[in-house]
Predict the structure.
Amino acid sequence: MMADGQKQLRSKPEKVDKAETSEDLAPTADPKPPSVPKRKQPTMDIEWQEGGVVKVVIDGDFGRIEKAAGNTAVHNGLLGQISVLGSPGAKAGAAASNFALGFVDSMEPQGATEALLLAQMAAIDQATMTMARRLNHTSAIHQQDAAERALNKLARTYTAQVEALKRYRSKGQQLVRVERVTVESGGQAVVGNVSHGGGVNGKS
């Protein structure tokens, strides 16, 4: 017992730190980056009006094609050519035109030459498939022969266009890989760039 007049001393309870949990130790996740709005693909709606006038209404992002065209005249001319591309039995068709437009856009042309070549490739592809359909749906021998000849020409043309685009995009550079070089007795193997004038930039 405590004597009278003595105060009871009470010690303050010590502060106990909260135990760290796995959640406290986990690294803080970076905030989600803002979502990039989806690019709207370019499209066109086509309508033939009286007097042979074609009404074209475009929608979507034409930035790639505009940049490649380089100026308004080339851009508008290209869209005009694509708009009247048409489909079998029709003067104009949005489906055929949007196919060509989508192909040019998806290939991301890097200049007016590429944009025009890609439009031609899309047109040749559609003509090729038209001839293929005619060949598959006719039983007359003379019609089969005509469709087959046209199909072969169109297919070769498309292949040539693909090669032309590859060469243009590579700026004419060609890589030649030599797998094996055999040198006979008394001969020399030349490694390097040989100019047209006969000079050699390399070693033997």
